[in-house]
């Protein structure tokens, strides 16, 4: 079981995401008003709060959304879950489609720290069922 600690979007690609506290998740599209939403396999990105905290403890000053993540969730080590894992939060159902991504080493975090956790710790999902998610909500792995 996990707890949602941030819900982040960016209205334009190439800009840092900001915590908006609550958002509408649209089936087979992503988060309403998020620039990265669309009909593809990386509609919503998730990052573990614990991994962000580890990075902060190494001296990084990063706000929620700094890595491009849509959801910051405590209680999960996402990269160790299999592709196809389904998560439920309220009415929203997300399916894990990709673990990690190729990093463009020009990102601001990599330039400052010489490292970025999103390429190895971040995961991507598609929205199987829409609804609303807000900070404080519980995220669970959906058992079939």
Please, could you describe this protein's structure?
The chain has helices at about 50-55, 110-115, 120, and strands at about 1-10, 20, 20-25, 30, 45-50, 70-75, 85-90, 90-100, 125-130, 130-135, 140. Strands 1-6-5-9-8-7-11 form a seven-stranded mixed barrel. A three-stranded antiparallel sheet has the order 4-3-10, with no helix packed on it. It is globular, with a radius of gyration of 14 Å. The mean pLDDT is about 90. It has about 140 residues and is mainly beta. The longest helix is centred in the middle third of the chain and has 9 residues, at about 50-55. The chain is built from three helices and eleven strands, in the order E-E-E-E-E-H-E-E-E-H-H-E-E-E. It starts with a strand and ends with a strand. About 15% of the residues lie in helices and about 35% in strands.
List keywords for this structure.
single chain; 144 residues; mainly beta; seven-stranded mixed β-barrel; three-stranded antiparallel beta sheet; 3 helices
Give a brief description.
The protein has 144 residues and is mostly beta strands. The protein contains 3 helices and 11 strands; from the N terminus they run E-E-E-E-E-H-E-E-E-H-H-E-E-E. The protein has helices at 49-57, 108-113, 118-121; strands at 2-9, 18-19, 22-26, 30-31, 44-48, 71-74, 86-89, 92-99, 123-129, 131-134, 138-141.
């Amino acid at each position: 079981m996990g707890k949602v600690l941030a819900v982040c979007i960016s209205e334009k690609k190439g800009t840092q995401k900001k915590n908006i506290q609550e958002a509408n998740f649209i089936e087979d599209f992503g988060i309403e008003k998020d620039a990265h939403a669309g009909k593809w396999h990386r509609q919503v990105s998730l990052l573990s709060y614990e991994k962000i905290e580890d990075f902060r403890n190494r001296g990084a000053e990063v706000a929620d959304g700094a890595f491009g993540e849509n959801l910051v969730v405590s209680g999960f080590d996402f990269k160790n879950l299999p592709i196809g894992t389904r998560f439920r939060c309220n009415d929203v159902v997300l399916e894990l489609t990709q673990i990690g991504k190729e990093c463009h080493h020009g990102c601001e975090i990599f330039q400052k720290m010489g490292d970025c956790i999103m390429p190895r710790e971040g995961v991507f999902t598609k929205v199987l069922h829409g609804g609303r998610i807000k900070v404080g909500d519980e995220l669970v792995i959906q058992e079939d």
